[in-house]
Amino acid sequence: MATTAADKRVRRVKPAEERRRDLLDAALVVFVRDGLAEATIEEVTRTAGMSKGSFYLHFTTKDELAAAAWERHMTAFAGLGEAILADASSPLSDRLVAVLESLTRFVLDHGEVHRALYAVAGAEAVKNAANERLIDLIAGAARAGLEAGVLSVAEPEITARALYHGYCGAVTDVVAGSAVIDAELLIRHAGAMTRAVFPPSASA
Fold first, then answer.
1. Is the pTM of this model over 0.90?
2. 3-state secondary structure 87-99
3. How far is CA 104 from CA 129, 171, 174, in A?
4. I need a surface site. Which of 118, 135, 142, 192 has the fewest CB within 10 A?
């Protein structure tokens, strides 16, 4: 019997981690579009291009999927700040400005994800852990800059916490719809305020 072209095709089987990533990507699309309450596992798997049975190889419930999607989102948020501060190719004062500007932009650009997933059980604890990690990194960088004589700042820890939570609160108000602030203005202001409280030292 002749072998057809279809017989010769070898179907690629995605690794488990890639299939899990596809489900998380699809979940964000569906949760943002339909809302967490109305979203279904069937719609998530359809969007991901896989069977419903495949879903249960990676997650047990929709809530578990939503929690994993939120954790991945917040990991990306914290990772953005970490990457900027770790790049020693630019002056520390510029990196601190870039961190606050970039984190502010990230939340504003992904506001629909925050609105869709923040009601997930454990979401606040995950967010708080990411926030504390970033505050520690910003404070540590500022303290190192002070010790190296390249920054002029009093009380790096208190300054970092006040600055971070100030803009975190402002961005949350915008995302929640309780305040109307132009996004680009808020981002620029975050950078300007960061430079004001973490200025380069006169000798830098």
1. no
2. CCCCCHHHHHHHH
3. 17, 7, 11
4. 192
Question: pLDDT tens digit string along 27-70?
Answer: 999 999 999 999 999 999 999 999 999 999 999 999 999 999 99
**Number of folded domains that form the chain:** 2
Give the Cα separation of 69 and 180 in Å (integer): 27
Instruction: Return the half-sphere exposure (C-beta side, CA atoms, 13 A cut-off) of residue 42.
Output: 1
Through-space distance between the first and last CA atoms of the chain, rounded to whole angstroms: 80
User: Any residues with CB less than 8 A from the CB of 70 and at least 6 apart, and which?
Assistant: 117, 118, 120, 123, 126
- Whether residue 2 lies inside any domain: the answer is no
Indicate if 70 and 49 belong to the same structural domain: no
Same domain, 103 and 153: yes
Cα–Cα dist 129/131, whole Å: 5
